[in-house]
């Protein structure tokens, strides 16, 4: 039979009863029937008390309980007063009660006590330790007989604090008044919470609601003596432990039910365990952890973002890092590729120059022929002039002037040939500018004419009527055509002289400026078609295999396309297309 102080939901006793029942159920080898009775007694009403005792007696008359457990001082007071007529032979356990509230004189042979000790000075020292500037402490407490005892007890115990802090006891105030006062406490105040059971107006305050209402309006931190209130509103400190109290009481109850005589069980008075603090309240009131007593527990610590999302954060960091690494890698590769491209272009222009050198060798015969002609003419003219001078035909000055102008013309022609050779073998930087493709082709063909004569090949040409504007480097484009024509000359070499024909054509084709060289040679064997643009591919005994490869590099550098086909009429045709500019 459980006798519970006040109503079913009165804290802290409701919590003690809950814990006690759970623990007893856990410890008992047999099922135990528990009947719980709230001891709610109008103050000083003896007849009501007697009737409650009679009621309990009537209820259990045929089967007296095996154990009576009274929780809290009001229930204990009732049970002790009525011990003689309340199943005196049944063992009784008084618990959840301060040692001072037990009437030691009335403890019988059949009774035992599991008491606590509310160390009042320790509770208030805690407040002054964590908030050293505190000047005012308001005690929230009701005015029932039990509470009146505690008001007096606290006043006595806290006597030494006089002068150090102002202590306000709000036992004479209604709860509504208490709320008003709590909202307007002076700076550096604290509130000490003892659940007001019955306030001066007779209003009863149950459960957590009262504390929550106070918390909502209070302008100062709240402390308490019992950890059943420690759930979000209380800063913390040393407190009576509900779980320790209920577990100890359940262990004693189990012993009694097992046959141990109550008097034989001596339970030391329960003291406070390590102080407990609410991390959120410490933050709210800016209380540094260094101020807390050694060994304190800090509860309700809110996990940091890192604690909450450690894996997500790590995963994101890993992703970002690997991306950064990838980007760095790609940038590095890009830079390497860029350098490689620069190097390749340098090599290409070097090779192109070597290619032009060999071309100059190839062209040597025709160059010699080209130079011989003007030089021979100059010599002839010089001799004619000499004869004229010797024969003193000086009167005919006009004739002399004609000869001089011929010499000058031939000299210019020889100079042009030399200029061509120079432009072929000189190391020239790439110079891209707008050009007319027709001009490049016709000037190059001029230059090639002697070579064609020497090789006994006929070069025909058909140029587009309108200019073909392209953007490009003159020497490089000329080199492409030279390579193609020289290949065509080589290809026709084995043909009968009258069959050696090369046709060079320029035309506009959509947005392209096109030039092509067609020959009457043997064409390219189909299996070689895919290889001939590769560097060092050659079928000629002294060939370098660079001509077409360089031609393709140059054409692609100009944004163009080059390809070779076999003509249906025999021989090969190489077509080059370059983007037209407007
Ligand atoms: P090379 O002339 O030094 O051999 P090229 O790169 O200019 O180098 O030519 C590569 C090969 O392509 C030649 O050896 C030849 O076999 C083939 N080729 C090029 N042009 C023609 C053509 N007009 N007709 C037939 N074969 C050709």
UniProtKB/TrEMBL annotation:
Q: Which SUPFAM superfamilies match?
A: ATPase domain of HSP90 chaperone/DNA topoisomerase II/histidine kinase, Homodimeric domain of signal transducing histidine kinase
Identify the Pfam families for this entry: ABC_sub_bind, HATPase_c
- Broad EC category: transferase
Phosphoprotein listed as a keyword: yes
Q: Which reaction does it catalyse?
A: ATP + protein L-histidine = ADP + protein N-phospho-L-histidine
The alphabetical list of record keywords is: Phosphoprotein
Record domain Histidine kinase: where: 366-582
Classification via CDD domains: HisKA
Which molecular function terms from Gene Ontology are attached? phosphorelay sensor kinase activity
SMART domains linked: HATPase_c
PROSITE patterns given in the database record: HIS_KIN
Q: Does the keyword Phosphoprotein apply?
A: yes
- The superkingdom of the source organism is Bacteria
List its EC numbers: 2.7.13.3
Under which name does UniProt file this protein?
histidine kinase
What taxonomic ancestry is recorded?
Bacteria, Pseudomonadati, Pseudomonadota, Alphaproteobacteria, Hyphomicrobiales
């Amino acid at each position: 039979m459980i006798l519970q102080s006040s109503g079913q939901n009165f804290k802290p006793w409701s919590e003690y009863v809950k814990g006690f029942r759970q623990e007893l159920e856990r410890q008992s080898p047999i099922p135990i029937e528990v009947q719980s009775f709230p001891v709610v007694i109008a103050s000083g009403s003896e007849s009501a008390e007697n009737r409650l005792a009679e009621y309990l007696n009537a209820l259990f008359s045929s089967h007296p309980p095996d154990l009576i457990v009274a929780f809290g001082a009001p229930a204990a007071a009732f049970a002790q007063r009525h011990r003689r007529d309340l199943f005196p032979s049944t063992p009784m356990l008084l618990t959840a009660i301060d040692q001072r509230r037990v009437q030691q004189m009335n403890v019988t042979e059949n009774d035992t006590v599991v008491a606590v000790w509310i160390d009042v000075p320790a509770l208030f020292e805690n407040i002054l330790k964590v908030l050293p500037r505190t000047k005012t402490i308001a005690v929230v407490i009701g005015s029932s007989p039990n509470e009146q005892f505690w008001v007096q007890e606290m006043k006595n115990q806290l006597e030494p604090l006089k002068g150090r802090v102002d202590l306000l006891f709000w036992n004479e105030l209604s709860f509504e008044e208490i709320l008003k006062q709590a909202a307007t406490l002076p700076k550096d105040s604290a509130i000490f919470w003892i659940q007001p059971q019955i306030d001066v107006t007779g209003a009863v305050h149950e459960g957590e609601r009262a504390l929550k209402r106070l918390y909502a309006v209070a302008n100062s931190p709240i402390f308490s003596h019992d950890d059943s209130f420690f759930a979000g509103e209380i800063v913390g400190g040393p407190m009576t432990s509900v779980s320790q109290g209920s577990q100890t009481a359940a262990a004693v109850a189990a012993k009694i039910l097992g046959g141990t005589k109550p008097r034989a069980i001596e339970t030391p008075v329960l003291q406070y365990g390590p102080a407990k603090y609410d991390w959120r309240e410490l933050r709210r009131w800016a209380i540094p952890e260094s101020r807390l007593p050694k060994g304190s527990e800090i509860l309700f610590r809110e996990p940091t973002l890192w604690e909450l999302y450690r894996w997500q954060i790590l995963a994101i960091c890993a992703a970002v890092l690997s991306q950064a690494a990838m980007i760095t890698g790609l940038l590095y590769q890009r830079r390497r590729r860029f350098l490689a491209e620069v190097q390749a272009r340098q090599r290409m222009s070097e090779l192109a120059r070597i290619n032009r050198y060999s071309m100059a060798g190839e062209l040597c015969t025709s160059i010699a022929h080209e130079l011989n002609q003007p030089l021979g003419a100059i010599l002839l003219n010089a001799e004619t002039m000499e004869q004229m001078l010797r024969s003193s035909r000086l009167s005919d000055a006009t004739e002399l002037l004609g000869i001089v102008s011929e010499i000058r013309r031939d000299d210019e022609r020889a100079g042009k040939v030399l200029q061509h050779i120079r432009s072929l073998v000189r190391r020239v930087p790439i110079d891209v500018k707008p050009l007319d493709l027709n001009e490049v082709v016709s000037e190059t063909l001029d230059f090639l004419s002697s070579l064609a004569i020497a090789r006994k090949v006929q070069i025909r040409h058909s140029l587009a009527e309108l200019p073909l504007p392209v953007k490009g480097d003159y020497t490089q484009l000329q080199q492409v055509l030279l390579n193609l024509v020289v290949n065509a000359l080589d290809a026709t070499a084995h043909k009968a002289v009258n069959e050696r024909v090369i046709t060079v054509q320029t035309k506009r084709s959509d947005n392209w400026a096109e030039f092509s060289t067609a020959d009457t040679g043997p064409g390219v064997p189909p299996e070689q078609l895919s290889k001939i643009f590769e560097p060092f591919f050659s079928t000629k005994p002294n060939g370098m295999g660079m001509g077409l490869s360089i031609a393709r590099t140059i054409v692609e550098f100009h944004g163009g396309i080059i390809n070779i086909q076999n003509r249906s009429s025999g021989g090969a045709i190489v077509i080059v297309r370059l983007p037209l500019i407007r």
